[in-house]
Specification:
Oligomer: single chain
Order of helices and strands: HHHHHEEHH
Structural class: mainly alpha
Shape: elongated
Distance between the termini: 33 Å
């Protein structure tokens, strides 16, 4: 929509396109926020719980401390959130095979099914959409997303963070 409007401008300038991108990014962030809110409601959990569940889904077996660091929660707050997610049936605790005193959080089959029902259609739609772009365009999109994410982290004072490790 924003791209179409920008392209239709008879005297499109770099500034016009940058402004259209800014509006499109804001609209994308708003839509993502609304989608996540609806997903949390559908799962019967809150947004913090959803963020914790997302870390487990992305990383596999993970410690409570690692989840807390990834979503910027204390270990106690992460434990409380994960208690709720576990009661909902989406995760479970298992013994850490490398440290008998440790516990790891893993997705349950019910958790995979519930989250898959929500995000699988979005992943499929994204695959179709991205299939229309050239390799050069995909590299540009990826670079924009990575640089935008880094700018947000820098503004938060968190510096460079690998998205797979928090």
């Amino acid at each position: 929509m924003f791209y179409d409007q920008a392209v239709k401008m008879s005297n499109e300038t770099r500034a016009d396109l940058i402004a259209a991108i800014g509006k499109a990014v804001q609209a994308f962030q708003d839509a993502t926020d609304s989608f996540d809110e609806a997903a949390a409601a559908r799962l019967g959990i809150n947004r913090t719980d959803l963020r914790c569940l997302g870390v487990v889904a992305a990383r596999g077996p993970v410690s409570v401390g690692e989840i807390g660091r990834a979503v910027d929660l204390t270990r106690g707050a992460a434990t409380t959130a994960l208690d709720r997610v576990e009661r909902a049936g989406y995760v479970r605790r298992i013994r850490n095979p490398e440290d008998r005193r440790g516990v790891l959080i893993v997705m349950t089959d019910a958790g995979r099914a519930a989250t898959g029902a929500i995000w699988a259609p979005m992943v499929a739609a994204g695959d179709v959409m991205l299939s229309r772009y050239s390799l050069a365009e995909l590299r540009t999109i990826l670079r924009f997303l990575e640089e935008s994410r880094q700018a947000q982290l820098d503004e938060l004072g968190q510096g460079s963070q690998d998205p797979t490790t928090g």
